[in-house]
């Protein structure tokens, strides 16, 4: 679940450290009234660093801590959003209100079972290579759902491994609701899932006869399908009490994910791990 946690922590920074959608809505409203300008009026960039804590691999019941860097912003009209070990670009400008569309490329590094494998039996299977997944990121955002500053976004990333690790395809849909709680605080709630093709599932969840002989785990052949689904809550507080002027902010986030299908039934999860995956993160960022 390390990969999921990195993505979620990235959303922490995207939603609360920078609050690009809702803060921009607030900025548009303020600018229209002539009362205030915002750091989000033109080009802006947010950088952050945090610490995550989650399962050592997808399906593990051993937990590890690791650092999380995050970059988020908008430069020259191109949106930049964080991903686990990567980022996504958005070439389409969002309207000030109503429905907007997102589209651009995404790239992310998947490090599942590539390091920090705490379980000695799973470690005996050998470390996996890191995958680099590249593909389109697309979404629909609805602004002002319940009030003037909230947003609801449905997004999907589709990635193909170009590094020769799993050599397959993975699809990651998500539904996120974002709303400020006050001038200096905001929260987001996200429901997400992951679907992998046969190559993806086989690489991460199958156990070959040779691996079975080494580890004592039963052989297992994993097929395509949904591998996980979960819910995440994220909250952020601007340290000077004003999300619109940038500066420093602190974010905390946590959530639960459930392994599904063959990703749940594999002995890596059912025998050596757990289908219940908990995770959390805390970080600090600066927007300018």
From TrEMBL:
Residues 1-23 form the signal peptide. It comes from the Bacteria. It is found in: Cell outer membrane. The keyword Signal applies. Keywords: Cell outer membrane, Membrane, Signal. It holds the Pfam family MipA. One of its GO terms (cellular component) is cell outer membrane. Belongs to the MipA/OmpV family. This is MltA-interacting MipA family protein. It comes from Caenibius tardaugens NBRC 16725.
């Amino acid at each position: 679940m390390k990969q999921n946690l990195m993505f979620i922590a990235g959303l922490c920074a995207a939603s609360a450290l920078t609050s690009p959608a809702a803060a921009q809505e607030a900025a548009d409203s303020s600018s229209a009234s002539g009362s205030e300008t915002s750091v989000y009026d033109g080009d802006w960039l947010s950088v952050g660093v945090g610490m995550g804590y989650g399962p050592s691999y997808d399906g593990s019941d051993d937990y590890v801590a690791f650092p999380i860097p995050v970059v988020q912003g908008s430069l020259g009209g191109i949106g930049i959003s964080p991903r686990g070990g990567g980022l996504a670009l958005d070439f389409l400008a969002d309207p000030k209100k109503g429905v907007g569309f997102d589209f651009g490329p995404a790239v992310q590094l998947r490090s599942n079972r590539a390091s920090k494998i705490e379980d000695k039996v799973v470690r005996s299977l050998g470390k996996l290579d890191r995958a680099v997944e590249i593909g389109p990121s697309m979404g629909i955002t609805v602004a002002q759902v319940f009030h003037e500053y909230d947003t609801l976004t449905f997004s999907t990333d589709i990635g193909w491994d170009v590094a020769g690790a799993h050599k397959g395809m993975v699809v990651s849909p998500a539904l996120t609701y974002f709303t400020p709680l006050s001038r200096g605080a905001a929260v987001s709630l996200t429901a997400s899932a992951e679907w992998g093709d046969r190559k993806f599932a086989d690489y991460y969840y199958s156990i070959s006869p040779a691996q079975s002989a080494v580890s004592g785990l039963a052989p297992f052949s994993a097929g395509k399908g949904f591998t996980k689904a979960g819910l995440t809550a994220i909250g952020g507080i601007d340290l000077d009490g004003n999300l619109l002027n940038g500066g420093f902010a602190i974010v905390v986030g946590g959530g639960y994910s459930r392994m599904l299908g063959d990703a749940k039934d594999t002995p890596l999860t059912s025998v050596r791990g757990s289908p219940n995956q908990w995770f959390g993160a805390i970080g600090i960022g600066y927007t300018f």
